[in-house]
């Protein structure tokens, strides 16, 4: 395992920000780190980066603790985006690249390559404050990736971007992964995590609630969604034993059930009311799992 | 170490290339050249005015007016008088109209005592009325002496000046003339130190706060340790300050040298500034005290800058720091006339005051070597302690966000720095 967190706890005085968190991330994989605001994601990232010490537990990268000696192999995109507003894009990226151990000439080449890739080569000599928020974010992502890091930590990489740019960044992140980098990223957007991550972890108020591969997480959740479309009234169906939750739309309903038996029963009941136009049993989305585990208020 | 120089270079270059820095430096350099040539400029303006300064005099004794003119010429003041028949009221009107600048009413009522009234637009003109009075006084004395029928020798004996020489036996061992020379140089340099320390320590606090508020800090400290970052920053801006001061110094030197009007004056200016043997030592001390003073305050400013999350809050946190420098300057300014006063002596050892007050004493007095050495030692020690303490606060401060406007956050930052 490339990155390992071993029973990591972080306390600020009385307050426990991260409680006994363990995870193991394989080299060249993408790991999703999910949690509501204040769940302890940023604190965990800061501990991984060595900005904060752990109260208990150990964090290792390839068997070694991370410190300023290894920081050249790490890329970091903080949640709060930050660049020097008055500095020009190129100067700024050269500065940040050099700090990550790049040679000036290599940094220059990398900057041109990345700006082309993100289709914004015209910003090379613009001041950062002149750029739109989305474009600033691209520059920030370049700063995190330009030095070909082995470990990339992305805190909310896709927030605040339009769908086209999200796709562009996703592509870039996947490429970096395919080149062998290990990537940890946090997000509120369950669909992104579902699409990109083999492994994930959900934390809530410092506690690790779910950990494992996407498939295992879904299977062990033990609930499925039954989707029924019908022109008839389906409101009575939520009294069928085994139905955990029901949500209604204009032309049908979705029921959350724990087993296949209940699903069949639902179908029988629905057919009693009239013809059914659509019936399916779906695996739960990460969104469902997150909401069920963390609670509605944070979704 | 490489990271250190990258940050150092960035701190230095981004400021050195900024418009603010270039403009400020250019303006001050231009100001220095202007100041060096100020006499030429003033003369150029003055010469136009002086053509028409014959002062109207209302008098009953025209001979006296001639003698007054001669007396003033003897005293080094070329003044023309013009006896006029206008009445006092008429002259006052002319004065109000701005046609004349002043007029004189000169009468000798009893034949031996002079009554004079000098009327001018404003009472600003200090020097001339005093000279006038002095000239009239000696004229009257002459008149009286003539009346008493004293022989010229007798009169001469009566007014023979006393032998008076001033010698100061102070700790400085410097003559009053030397003191005055040193005073000018020390004052100029003291002011520079004061200004530079305030300006550059504020710049540091602002820089750190900007990096924090723009959140670039988090990227920086994930690749460089906060302590390294802080010292690289302090050193980078310090180098910028030193560069600017040296530029000013060079400009001042060139300006005085090249200033055409004062080519003969420049010699006297240099000697007046004490740019002889005293000066070299004083300038070296000035640089030393600037560097030490800067570090002392810059480390504190960096610490304070790391506590705020918005640049707007910087000023309120840095104000107490600025107040300390102001107090130091006030003590030093009072010490200019009495450099050996007790309060000056004692405060010169306080590290926060030493950059100005000890510099003042070194510049004006002949101190035993250990006195400045002790103050410098204390300052270096304080800088080391503050650096150590500042680094700990900084480490936590840079990760702290939220409303922070008070020094209470110091404890919080220290706590976080340990985490």
TrEMBL record, chain A:
Classification lineage: Bacteria, Bacillati, Bacillota, Bacilli, Bacillales
Similarity section: Belongs to the ABC transporter superfamily.
Organism in which the protein naturally occurs: Bhargavaea cecembensis
Pfam families: ABC_tran, DrrA1-3_C
SUPFAM superfamilies xrefs: P-loop containing nucleoside triphosphate hydrolases
Gene3D superfamilies: P-loop containing nucleotide triphosphate hydrolases (3.40.50.300)
Domain of life assignment: Bacteria
Range of residues in the leader sequence: none
Name of the featured protein: Sodium ABC transporter ATP-binding protein
UniProtKB/TrEMBL annotation, chain B:
Domain of life: Bacteria
Pfam family, one: ABC2_membrane_3
Bilayer-spanning residue ranges: 21-42, 184-209, 230-256, 283-305, 317-336, 342-360, 372-391
Main location: membrane
InterPro entries per the UniProt record, alphabetical: ABC-2_transporter_component (IPR051449), ABC2_TM (IPR013525)
GO molecular function: ABC-type transporter activity
UniProt keyword terms in alphabetical order: Cell membrane, Membrane, Transmembrane, Transmembrane helix
Compartment annotation: Cell membrane
Domain ABC-2 type transporter transmembrane, chain residue ranges per copy: 19-391
Keyword Acetylation: no
One Gene Ontology term, aspect cellular component: plasma membrane
Mode of membrane association: Multi-pass membrane protein
Protein name: ABC-2 type transporter transmembrane domain-containing protein
Annotated source species: Bhargavaea cecembensis
